[in-house]
Amino acid sequence: MTKYVYLFTEGNGNMRELLGGKGANLAEMTNIGLPVPQGFTISTEACTKYYEDGRQINDEIMAQVMEYIVKLEEITGKKFGDLENPLLVSVRSGARASMPGMMDTILNLGLNEQVVDVIATKSNNPRWAWDCYRRFIQMYSDVVMEVGKKYFEELIDKMKAARGVTQDVELTADDLKELASQFKAEYKAKIGTDFPTDPKEQLIGAIKAVFRSWDNPRANVYRRDNDIPYSWGTAVNVQSMAFGNMGDDCGTGVAFTRDPATGEKGLFGEFLTNAQGEDVVAGVRTPMKIAEMEQKFPEAFAQFTQVCETLEKHYRDMQDMEFTVEHGKLYMLQTRNGKRTAQAAMKIACDLVDEGMRTPEEAVAMIDPRNLDTLLHPQFDPAALKAAEAIGKGLGASPGAACGKIVFTAEDAVEWHNRGEKVILVRLETSPEDISGMKSAEGILTVRGGMTSHAAVVARGMGECCVSGCGEIAMDEEHKRFTLAGKEFHEGDIISLDGSTGNIYDGAIPQVDADPNNGYFGRIMAWADEFKRMGVRTNADTPADAKKARELGAQGIGLCRTEHMFFGEGRIDAFREMICSETVEEREEALDIILPMQQSDFEALYEALEGYPVTIRFLDPPLHEFVPTTEIEIEKLANKKHKTVADIKNIISSLHEFNPMMGHRGCRLSVTYPEIAKMQTKAVIRAAINVKAKHPDWNIEPEIMIPLVGDVKELKFVKDIVVATADEEIKSAGSDIKYEVGTMIEIPRAALTADEIAANADFFCFGTNDLTQMTFGFSRDDAGKFLDAYYDKKIFEADPFAKLDQTGVGKLMKMAIDLGKPVNPNLHIGICGEHGGDPSSVEFCDAIGLDYVSCSPFRVPIARLAAAQAAIAHKK
Ligand code: PEP
Ligand code: MG
After folding, report:
1. Which ligand has its closest atom nearest to the C-alpha of 621?
2. CB of 497 within 8 A of CB of 424?
3. Strand 329-337's sheet: what is its strand order?
4. Ligand 2 center to residue 355 CA distance, Å?
5. Measuring from each residue's beta carbon to the nearest atom of ligand 1, which residues come in under 6 Å?
6. Distance, CA of 175 to CA of 158 (rounded, Å)
7. Is 454 annotated as catalytic?
8. What pLDDT is recorded for position 120?
9. How far apart are CA 586 and CA 579, in angstroms?
10. Active-site residue, 564 included
11. Which one of the ligands is nearest to 855 CA?
12. Angle at the Cα of 417 from the Cα atoms of 414 and 419, rounded to 5 degrees
């Protein structure tokens, strides 16, 4: 029999897979003697089973839950539905990896009309009792029965208006009692049945709702962004309630052991008196700073400080904790390794090493490479920022510089972003439903909420700038406008946000590139370089890109797409002349114009790389991408080539292909027009000879890469041209320069026949963009149109063009290595498809023994860190 339910006393911190992060940590806190309200965890396996059984909780799991309710009743001395000593519980989700705010929670479960009277009388606090009940009806209706929150909020607003008050806490016991009955009437109107009164029925409904929330749209988006597999499922934690809303000697808080925005050591968080946890997280009321708790609850605060120290030492990482104070007594509700900004992650990892808590290897392994992105993004120009005057100030909830047009809804943020606008999402407060909009925005500004409100936590996780809790804003969401510093702002107006200081500026403040090599970042990356086995190169086509990539730590160019060198003004004309040639002579004439351009480009690349390797790939594009499209351009080309407009149009239409991605591109161009390969070889070799002459101590050894090879004979054909041309160039220059000729492995047939190909290649480089395209048979250019349906239907969890399909495409890569290496042990092997900058794909590349990964310049630090993490993991 499978065990699906565990008391907190039965688990421990190592059982994350089974109990989820929250469950494992509640068990661990119980084990180390911290004050935790007791409860049990229903495992992630039960969630998986629920989905396998067609979204049903089977009898076996149900029986175990019932058994554990009895155990919990024994432990707490309370009973569900009891009229003497009733048990009330919270029901919370908790996946293996924390997904803040993505899934559902229900508090105060176990209440009904009788029980609420019992607790009202016993506590002598009817206000508290009715507050719990109305909260429960509201949450249960929303989460379990999916009656929208807004109906209940409207009723609360009406009640507040009728009583002439503005805050929930100003409502009396009678008001709340009245609200509870209005809520129940609303429930009946929407659902058609009475609100459930049996606590066990309520509990089963809540457990199902938490399981179901694993599959809600926002959780699906979050999982895809954070590489969390759907198959993991969520656990459910059923915990007896501790009450923070029983009066002014009660409260609830969220705190971090270090500042999640900067990494600064010290208790950091927020506290609300007479409230329940959701009030802090949801940002409904703006809470007080944690330090102020000390005056109100000196004993609980002292104990809490002690607990923080214990937990940080225990987990050897910054902790993010939720707690409640009930009549002055502290209860711990949750601890987890806190989400943090990239800046904070760097500082915390270095500090933990300096404090002797972590080794450098562990410090490197702690940092999520995907977050580095934010460190590399622009900041405000310091001079412009100094000169600018802030029009308002909120909390600097997630650092970064953001500038964009104001939008007021998440939907608008997505829509405006999709049409190329930079937007700032301004909201009264954000809710988890806003996640897509938050992702699309440059920055987020909220009127309500604190440093731990949903907007702040999620923005930090996404590395996005966020200013929260700017109470000075008078918001009018309905009419899409707000007033700040006496000025009315409308949709489309531009503002700037400084996520570090919380300052808000009218208009745009100029931005400058971030300095990626500052202290902590530099230290972590130096460690990463020490631990990684694979090299990290870059995909760069221009000297500027190459220089940027070198600054970011690239150790070479793994892919120079030579066709991209013709995008610029003045270049494209020459290229078009070459494409629209009808004879070899005509083409050679055009190539003669191109040759010096290519040569000088290559020289600049060699200069930028200062002796690091440079792989130059020969022309690859479908030619039609480069042909002129407007009448003026066609006429210009016709004049140059002394042809008629009709001639050029005929040539263009003859270049049309039905399936250009599988068409006349790659090595096929050199097969039909060998003169192209000849010209490119001359340009590469001449450039190398010239730069070597200037820098004799640099190691200049060109790597010429032939694209889209499927048959060894294609490679041999092109290679013969390259070798003959190169040798002649070297000989006539009296040089002794060496060069290599290799190929991309990007057609499945190349992987399948890699032994034949390896005998004729100095290196392989996996072009996993094309290899993915051709293995799946999905067009790289069009797959985006239908992949969303694949995610919705759970056919795919991730875009195979972004995250390597290790099962299929990866198998071909492995096969190519296994076939190629024995034939040519000197073969060096890399990857230059987009996957070269994706952390999980980098890990796979390390596992199958690649020599290097190559990615776009801004992803170089991500790849360096991911490569180090892979090496550390594979060493274990
Ligand atoms: C590839 O196919 O993975 C590759 C790097 O080449 P391109 O994207 O230029 O086709
Ligand atoms: Mg390719």
Report:
1. 1
2. yes
3. 288-289, 265-273, 251-258, 319-326, 329-337
4. 47
5. 559, 561, 620, 746, 767-770, 832-833
6. 11
7. yes
8. 93
9. 10
10. no
11. 1
12. 115
Tell me which ligand sits closest to the C-alpha of residue 767.
1
* pLDDT band per the 50, 70, 90 thresholds, residue 765: very high
CB 31 within 8 A of CB 92: no
- Sole residue written with tokens 């202290």: 519
Q: Edge-to-edge strands of the sheet including 487-490?
A: 474-476, 481-484, 487-490
Give the number of residues written for the chain: 876
Q: What is the pLDDT of residues 467-508, one digit of tens each?
A: 988 989 999 988 999 999 999 999 999 999 998 889 999 999
pLDDT tens per residue across span 520-564 = 999 999 999 999 999 999 999 888 889 989 999 999 999 999 988
- pLDDT given at position 384: 87
The answer to whether 481 and 488 have CB atoms below 8 angstroms apart is yes
The tokens describing 57, both together, are 């909780």
Please tell me whether residue 810 adopts helix, strand or coil conformation.
helix
Among 454, 624, 828, 835, which one carries the catalytic annotation? 454
DSSP string, 33-49: T-----EEEE-HHHHHH
- For ligand 1, atom 6: residue with the closest CA: 767
Give the angle 78-84-88 at the CA atoms, nearest 5°.
40
Our mutation pick for probing the ligand 1 site, out of 770, 774, 780, counting the most ligand atoms within 8 A of Cβ, is 770
Q: Whose CA is nearest to atom 8 of ligand 1?
A: 769
Which two tokens mark 250?
């009660």
The Cα–Cα gap between 835 and 838 comes to 5
The phi, psi pair for 535, rounded to 5°, reads: -80, 160
CB atoms within 10 A of CB 292: 14
Residue 766 Cα: closest atom of ligand 1: 3
How many angstroms separate the CA atoms of 530 and 594, rounded?
42
Nearest-10 crossing angle of helices 113-123, 126-143 = 150
CA of 821 to the centre of ligand 2 (A): 22
From 559, 745, 764, 804, mutation site for ligand 1 pocket: most ligand atoms within 8 A of C-beta = 559
Amino acid at 290: I
Q: Which residue shows structure tokens 């969390």?
A: 228
Distance 772 CA to ligand 2 centre (A): 10
Burial readout 380-397 (b: 16 or more C-beta within 10 A, e: otherwise): beeeebeebeebbbbbbb
| pLDDT range class, residue 677, cuts 50, 70, 90 | very high
- Annotated catalytic residue: which of 308, 403, 560, 832? 832
Residue nearest to atom 10 of ligand 1 (CA): 770
Q: What is the C-alpha separation between 765 and 534, in angstroms, rounded?
A: 14
DSSP string, 280-299: HHTTSSPPEEGGGHHHH-HH
The sign of the CA dihedral 668, 669, 675, 680 is negative
CA 404 – CA 509 distance, rounded (Å): 10
pTM of the model: 0.84
Asked if 607 and 691 touch (Cβ cutoff 8 Å), the reply is: yes
Q: Is the pLDDT of residue 215 over 80?
A: yes
pLDDT in tens, 278-290: 776 665 667 888 8
How far is Cα 281 from Cα 452, in angstroms, rounded to an integer?
6
State CA 554 to chain mean position distance.
23
**67 to 9, 86, 241, 786, 828: CA distances (angstroms):** 15, 18, 19, 46, 60
